[in-house]
Amino acid sequence: MKNVDIKIDPGDLTRLNNKISLLRKEAPRKLSTNIAHAVKFMENDAVANAPRDNGDLIRSIGSEVVGMTAEVFAGVKYAPYQEFGTGSFIDVSDAVALGIPASTIERLYKGKGKREVNMPPQPFFFPAVRKGFKKLLDGIEKDLKQLL
């Protein structure tokens, strides 16, 4: 998939940043562990819910965590079309729920109109990311309660 910036509700982002800052000061190893667990959860959930055909999409899903930086990806070119659908079936609601404007997704993946293909969406990636963010926030809150 192409890189897409994800926007989170500003209030949630502020809350998350405050908690991350506190946890970073108090227990950097715990924060790094929370990030790693959340990212692995996202990867596993995306794999579990990805459409199954020849297995290329599933094999292309991966993640990488380096310290406090993490990335989850689907490496095949057709992943966004599986995620959002094509033609009259395009549904970007899962990405919009993460704060990505629908116009951004449609601009990147709408196609060139050379042929009409109407494939229904089979969301697997963005639902996993949304659940993973929740898992990250829950883990940070749990660690902060233990520390405080």
Keywords:
single chain, 148 residues, mainly alpha, two-stranded antiparallel sheet, 8% strand, elongated
What is this structure, in a nutshell?
This protein is mainly alpha-helical and 148 residues long. It is built from seven helices and two strands; from the N terminus they run H-H-H-E-E-H-H-H-H.
Task: Give your account of this protein's structure.
It is a single chain. The chain is mainly α and 148 residues long. It contains seven helices and two strands; from the N terminus they run H-H-H-E-E-H-H-H-H. The protein has helices at 10-26, 28-49, 56-60, 79-84, 93-97, 102-109, 125-147; strands at 61-66, 69-74. The protein has a two-stranded antiparallel ribbon with strand order 1-2. Strand 1 and strand 2 (69-74) form a beta hairpin. Helix 1 packs across helix 2 (28-49). The longest helix has 23 residues, at 125-147. The model has no long low-confidence stretch (mean pLDDT 85).
Average of per-residue pLDDT values: 85
Look at the helices and sheets and give the structural class. Answer: mainly alpha
Shape: elongated
- What are the segments in which pLDDT stays under 50 over at least 5 consecutive residues? none
Oligomer: single chain
Lateral arrangement of strands in the main beta sheet: 1-2
Radius of gyration: 17 Å
Distance between the first and last residues' Cα? 40 Å
**Proportion of residues in extended strands:** 5-15%
Task: Give the biggest sheet.
Answer: 2 strands, antiparallel
Number of strands: 2
Number of helices: 7
Which range best describes the helical content: under 10%, 10-25%, 25-40%, 40-55%, 55-70% or over 70%? 55-70%
The string of secondary-structure elements, in order, is HHHEEHHHH
